[in-house]
Write a structure and sequence with these properties.
Pfam families: TIM
Order of helices and strands: EHHEHEHEHHEHEHEHEH
Protein name: Triosephosphate isomerase
Bound molecules: 1,3-dihydroxyacetonephosphate
Shape: globular
Low-confidence stretches: none
Number of strands: 8
CATH topology: TIM Barrel
Distance between the termini: 10 Å
Catalytic activity: D-glyceraldehyde 3-phosphate = dihydroxyacetone phosphate
Largest sheet: 8 strands, parallel, barrel
Pathway: Carbohydrate biosynthesis; gluconeogenesis; Carbohydrate degradation; glycolysis; D-glyceraldehyde 3-phosphate from glycerone phosphate: step 1/1
Radius of gyration: 17 Å
Family: Belongs to the triosephosphate isomerase family.
Number of helices: 10
Mean pLDDT: 97
Strand order of the largest sheet: 1-2-3-4-5-6-7-8
CATH architecture: Alpha-Beta Barrel
CATH superfamily: Aldolase class I
């Protein structure tokens, strides 16, 4: 059974010293976590580019995966400011976040750019973490249709390989509470079906992000493969609580 996936993006919340402090506290808290140790739960941490090396060092010897918040569309060459998937892989990054709502909205990232980055990631041996989600509040059916279509566009032309899809309704990011459980379940179920029928995406997962914190995974149960946390992971105790819930969820998945 594939592990339950818990991810954290630190976005640009922490400076260098604060990020290092968070890595040390989280590493301390999760190093002997039974869910992580058994492989039932997978944790990835996505700091800024500059924080990747200290994160790798802080989590060395643990199964925690280190991610990047973006990746270049090209493999090498004159692309000022960009970092290639191959270089990310070289320093131990195994997952690259692509098409987050903030990048789509603030930096004009299109589905075409997302698809090119997903392709570059897979070519470079880095798992794409493809972020999708409706911009406006819609009913669950319309949101599912819009999000599945966005996922198809976001993976168009990408080579075969597993992806992690983060369903993040834009209106639930940075909010006081997540989207309603029934809404999330309707969309994640549709996304999973779309991945299941894709011939080349075996082993993919669908996780939810957007004001996610302790308690949500238990409510969502098996309608998701995990959670993608933002602000509510700044307190390592919250993250530990979510990892406990993920471990309990993994047990129900094995039991079925
Ligand atoms: O965008 C998110 C994770 O990438 C979610 O962030 P928040 O949980 O802070 O809303």
């Amino acid at each position: 059974m594939a592990p339950v996936v818990v991810g954290v993006s630190l976005k640009m919340y922490f400076g260098h010293a604060a990020a290092k402090d968070w890595f040390a506290r989280v590493a301390d808290r999760v190093r002997s976590h039974p869910g992580l140790a058994s492989g039932a739960v997978e944790l990835f941490v996505i700091p800024t580019y500059l924080q990747i090396l200290p994160a790798r060092d802080a989590f060395a010897g643990s199964p925690v995966r280190i991610g990047a918040q973006d990746v270049a569309v090209a493999d090498s060459g004159p692309f000022t400011g960009e970092v290639s998937a191959a270089e990310l892989a070289e320093v131990g990054v195994s997952i690259a976040e692509i098409g987050h709502a903030e990048r789509r909205r603030l930096f004009g990232e299109t589905d075409d750019a997302v698809a090119a980055k997903a392709a570059a990631s897979l070519r470079g041996g880095v798992t794409p973490l493809v972020c999708v989600g409706e911009a406006e509040r819609l009913g669950p059916k319309a949101a599912a249709a819009a999000t599945v279509a966005q996922l198809r566009r976001s993976l168009s032309g990408a080579p075969a390989g597993p992806v992690v899809v983060a369903y993040e309704p834009v209106w639930a990011i940075g909010a006081s509470e997540p989207a309603p459980v029934e809404h999330i379940a309707a969309v994640t179920t549709a996304l999973r079906m779309a991945l299941d029928i894709a011939p080349d995406r075996a082993g993919s997962s669908v996780i939810y992000g957007g004001s996610a914190g302790p308690g949500l995974l238990t409510e969502l149960g098996r309608s998701v493969d995990g959670l993608f946390l933002g602000r509510f992971a700044h307190d390592p105790e919250n993250l530990a609580a979510v990892l406990d819930e993920a471990t309990a969820l993994a047990e129900t998945r094995v039991a079925s």
